[in-house]
Amino acid sequence: MKKTLAALLTAALLTCLCTAFAADPSASDWAQDSLDQAIALGFVPEDLQSAYQQDITRGEFAAIAMQFLAAQYGYDVENFYFALTWRAAQDPDAPQLESPFVDGVSRHVDWAYSLGVVNGRRMTENEAGLKRGTFDPDAPITRQEAAAMLCRAYAVYGGSLEDAAGPSFADTFTDAGQVADWALDSAEAMWALGVMGGTGDGLFTPLGLYTREQCIVTFLRLWQSGPVSRAKDNVAKLEGPSQEETIAYLKDGPSGFPFNVEKRWDTKLCVVLYGEYGGMPAKAGPDLILVYPDGRILRVDDGIPAINPRGTAPNLENLTLSPDETTLTYSVTYTDRSEMDGFVYHEPGVYRVSLDLATGKATLTVTPLNP
């Protein structure tokens, strides 16, 4: 419920343009098909689906790695994080979220660090055992660093370096001796599995930089070629919460923000929760959350614009469940225009939403009102 009418029209136009020009001019010809496959599999974040020949940063690599891991476990990334957070709360032996970095990194980086996929830089540990340091999220990564992080990601869902057997790395690459000791086993494994290749002329180029498209393509190869993979249906299930456990956990307040339920509908497709998070530093307004029988959640993004520049969501009106329990309809009425510094937050109008409970897809229609 954060978008303006102008933003909606722009998004629709961009969608048409993207459909008409499917091939991204920023991608190399050799990578395009693989990029399309990786996007279809769901492990390329939307904000990294461009500028493919640009050097990838440490933060971007972590984001792709986490979305890749979510796909390996059969989750979208939001529900993957929810399942990990819930498991951490239930089991002290489960991976616990750590945020040791002082340079303002993201939850992708924090979880990638907590799962052992990435390491920090200049890390210190105090007498209480608390680790602090930097991550350098905007720094580029080298090919040997990429090999190490790919191997660590593979290990998260049950992969092992012992899975790799192939031609001699040292006999294949004339610069094999330049690979750092800490990265050598990983580079050999990624080469043996066909995940990483050379750079030509018998070179591996361990200190060469890594691009976005190279990162995405190698994750796709790991998906396709790794002996352990969802593609082979042999990744152990990551147990998440049940439907009622999810609802209880939301109410208890993961991360200190309890969801206060104002209305609840128990339908044949999902449980619909309407309420507002407590403990927030600024009022965010109400949310709609769908909780499915397998415990997964979907926070509804219906396109209704916010009340103000802070992004406060409006109260929903006329919430009505269809007789067959498949659709929820509701509306919001704005009688005035909200604008600040030339940016329009909403126009006067009646904003009506039809929400498909099976898919979570919201269809928004706007009837303008005279201000």
UniProtKB/TrEMBL annotation:
Q: Where is the signal peptide?
A: 1-22
InterPro entries with a match to the protein in the record: SLH_dom
Which keywords has UniProt assigned to this entry? Repeat, Signal
Residues annotated as coiled-coil are none
Q: Name one Pfam family in it.
A: SLH
Ranges for the SLH domain? Answer: 92-164, 170-233
Official protein name in the record = S-layer homology domain-containing protein
